[in-house]
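As a point of orientation, let us examine one representative protein, giving the amino acid sequence and backbone structure tokens.
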Amino acid sequence: QVQLLESGGGLVQPGESLRLSCAASGFAFRDFAMSWSRQTPGGKGRELVARISAYAGVTWYVDSVKERFTISRDDAKNMVYLQMNSLRPNDTAVYFCNANSGSGLTYWGQGTQVIVSS
């Protein structure tokens, strides 16, 4: 059974940090690119925030989070992380973990809420 379980969300003040974690199971994790996307209340859809490739671990970030967020993966533990620094109110969203094989298989977690507010 495939499972992606996000954790680490919460309420923080602007400028603070959070680290999101995603625990994967039920599929060949090392063969999948992993990413984090987010969706705001009333938003049109999910925005891809950060991605890390399988094998080489090449990373990509949306411009709005560059130099503030860092995605990483631990293939030995089947984990992917999103370190979020200097958080802003407009980072408030539900953050989702995604696994993509590149050949048609894609899996989503249930999401974890991040609220950035003073």
Notes: The chain has a mean pLDDT of 96. The CA atoms of residues 50 and 61 lie 4 Å apart. DSSP finds no helices and eleven strands in the chain. The longest strand covers residues 18-25.
